[in-house]
Amino acid sequence: MYHLSMALVEVNSVSKSYPRRAGFRTEQKTVVENVSLKIDAGETLGLVGESGSGKTTLARMILGLVTPSSGTVLVDGVDVAQASAAALHRLRRQMQPVFQDPYAALNPRMNVLQIVTEPWLIHGRDIGIAKGRAALRNAAVELLGQVGLDESTLPRHPHEFSGGQRQRINIARALALRPKLLILDEPVSALDVSVGAQIVNLLRRLQREYKLTYLFISHSMPLVRYLSTRIAVMEHGRLVETGEAVELCAHPQEEYTQQLLAATPELPAGVA
């Protein structure tokens, strides 16, 4: 297992509230409340909970897309909310998201070659990728091969692919900048069960080969248990239980965790 002495991600007492109208008054709705957790380099932290539990908001704070109302998020020792533009630019290379809807995440006007190579055109010099047309194409073919797609996909557009193929393209794009951290927000929930199983197995292989760190977000406890080193359980914006994956699933302490385990007791066929 690939580990560093310092946690790659540190979330310290983070809360997030949004204003909302309540009759003639404006009040604060808290969606994440006083959450603290760490993600070590090379591990998979599974973040599990029902819809509305605050999982995606927490992920967006780690990515720097949402600013915490209080608390701090450190990625590789850098406070994301306080980072300078240059520091945030560097951080963006280190952490990449893979979202739930594989079609919405892809620009329908761009072909696969443009989608996969766009990060290199923005950041390529920083990671040693040459920007010549032939070099970019060759690098794209090699990267697509890592996710099970071949050169014939390059001129095609997102609408020409199945959901599983689109998610493979999303994963390839996320890997393009050689990040340390992938934030996987329900990456298989929009896919057929058998296709989702293929993506899950792909993610396991890529983690080994690229020495990746994952934050894997899901409402499915079996998938989280299968992929994760540790599990954090969220309910109504609060972190209610954390622990090593095997131990937490075998001996859950909280009733809510027990309910999640009982709701989906089996892995989908094809996950192995």
Polypeptide structure, described:
This protein is of the alpha/beta class and 272 residues long. The protein has a domain of 178 residues: P-loop containing nucleotide triphosphate hydrolases (Rossmann fold), CATH 3.40.50. It is built from nine helices and ten strands. The strands form two sheets. Strands 6-7-8-3-9-10 form a six-stranded mixed β-sheet, sandwiched between helices. The longest helix is centred in the last third of the chain and has 18 residues. It is globular and about 55 Å long. The N terminus is likely disordered.
Looking at this protein, list some descriptive labels.
272 residues; alpha/beta; six-stranded mixed β-sheet
Topology summary:
Elements (H helix, E strand, L loop, with lengths): L8 E14 L2 E15 L4 E5 L6 H9 L6 E6 L2 E2 L5 H10 E4 L13 H16 L5 H14 L16 H13 L5 E5 L7 H18 L2 E6 L2 H7 L2 E6 L2 E7 H6 L4 H9 L9
TL;DR?
The chain is α/β, with parallel strands linked by helices and 272 residues long. It has a domain at 9-103 and 181-263: P-loop containing nucleotide triphosphate hydrolases (Rossmann fold), CATH 3.40.50.
